[in-house]
Amino acid sequence: MSSRDAPExxxxxxxxxxxxxxxxxxxxxxxxxxxxxLGQLIASYSLSSVACDPxxxxxxxxxxxxxxxxxxxxNLASLAAGTVGIWLAWAAWRRSRREKAGGRHTLxxxxxxxxxxxxxxxxxxxxxxLVAIAAEAAALLILQRCAPGTWx
Length: 152
Hints:
Elements: H1 23-51, H2 67-96, H3 104-110, H4 114-142
């Protein structure tokens, strides 16, 4: 057996600082903001569609007392969850940003720095969904209810 056929033992793990950020925390950072947005979208639509039924069989606002307040609380909870998601992603990135030497282009070529890659991905995803949550929350404050001149 020649030295060419011998396995290399000097190869390091592609994610050497994986113990600095736990996998469940990294996964939570990645999915918390999108899950909060999805919950906000489903809850807001299912509650406000009752008040804006186009078929004419609209339920009065008295049937759902405090609908606007309930929607506001849902939006605030979604904003809080999205903020926690982006904070977790930022904390994971701070712990793993010096995982491997070299810039992002070098590390992409060799496939190293997985923990840092996941943290940056979670930071980007959380940021995008936090903007979507904020836009939907702003719509609650800006848009009118179905009947012109009346506010939700």
